[in-house]
Each structure stands twice: as structure tokens, then as C-alpha cells.
Amino acid sequence: MNSLSKISRLGISAVFMGAAMFMSSCSKEEAQAPEPRIDLTSDLNDLDGNAKINDLAPSIPQTAGLACKGCQAVGWTNSNWNANVPTGTSTSTSLWGIAPWIKALRGNDETASFITTSAIEYAGGGARSYVDATIKNLTPGKTYAINVLISTTKTWDTDYVKSAILTITHFNLAPVNYFETNFHGKTGQWIPQTIVFKAVADKAKLGFGVNVAGANVTGYANISVGPNAIKQLD
Hints:
single chain; alpha+beta; Jelly Rolls; five-stranded antiparallel beta sheet; globular; CBM-cenC domain-containing protein
């Protein structure tokens, strides 16, 4: 009986030891098994209908910057450089931050500084400067609106210009969209302008410059583009 009892006890111990080893082995296998991966991409891509997490909103550079002759805000370039008709950044009170305007422009923080273009008309010809910036993240076929402010200002030895132009170009993919503003009766003040166009590619260019200046005198036209200036209409 004693020997059987010992054998029984040994048998029971062996069973528990085997079970413990099996459970330990299972635990190690479970610990080593990789956790299942969860792919959130497709789920996130389906949020809000067809919205994509990598989609970027349309954008255009702002015009605010350090006042100086010959410099523009980041993203803007002088696309028709001519020393006789410079471009640069001005303030609401002065040309290039140097020569006072005869009449200061009334506005807000967004119009405290802006880009200025110039032109001159003379017998047999004339010259005009022109600036542009790239509009990004467009969807071809969609319609967009850009809201800007434009103005004409003068110093003691210059004059107001008669009109200015805004253009939308599509990198030679389509005709130019052309918008002219006449400054008659609207000198020395900001004039809101809304430009509506249909995208033909993922990028386009907004251009601005003086269209008609006064005879035999230099004139200036200004453009102010603030944050969130562009929106998709459809």
C-alpha cells in the first residue's frame, strides 16, 4: 500500500508537472505570436464620404512681408523685371516703407503690408511690372474663388494708375482668365475683388499688375492676399 501510494503520488505529480510544462509552452507561444495588424488607411479614407486623409486644401501665398523695394513675400515673384518699373513690398502709409503715400490706405492687420507693382507711360511706349504666385492643390474640373484686395496709391511725385489687371494662367494648358479693375473714383482705397475660375490642372498662377498708367508719370497698384483667400465652390 505504501509503495502504491508513493507511485500514485508520483503519477499525480508527473501529470501536474506535464500540464504545467504544456501551459508554460503555450504561454511562450502566445507571447511570441505577433499581434494582428490593423490597417486604418481604408477606414480613414472613407471618413466623411470620399474624403482622403492626404488631401490638401487649395492654397495661395499671402502678400504680407517686410517692406522694401525689390522684394516680395515668400511665394511671389516679379515675372517681368524692369528697373524702371520696380516691384516690392509697401505699407499702408508708405511706398517700400520709405516714401509716404499722399493718402494712407485704411485697412487691418492683413493689409498692413502688401505687394506693390508700378508702371510708366510715355510717348511711343511705356513699361509695366507684374507679379505672380502659384496656386496649389487644385482639383481639375473644380471651380474656385479667390478673394483679394487691390488699390492704387501715389506719392508726391507719382500719380494714381487708371486700372489694374488680375490674371489666372494655367501653365499653357488653357487660355488666360483676365480680370480688369478700373480705379476711377476709387483711388487711395482698397477694392475687394473675387476671381472665379475653373482648374484645368493641380496648379495655376495668379498674376497682378498695372494695366494703364497716367501719361508721362509713374503710377503704383497694390495687391493684398490674406489667409484663406481661396475656396472651392463645387
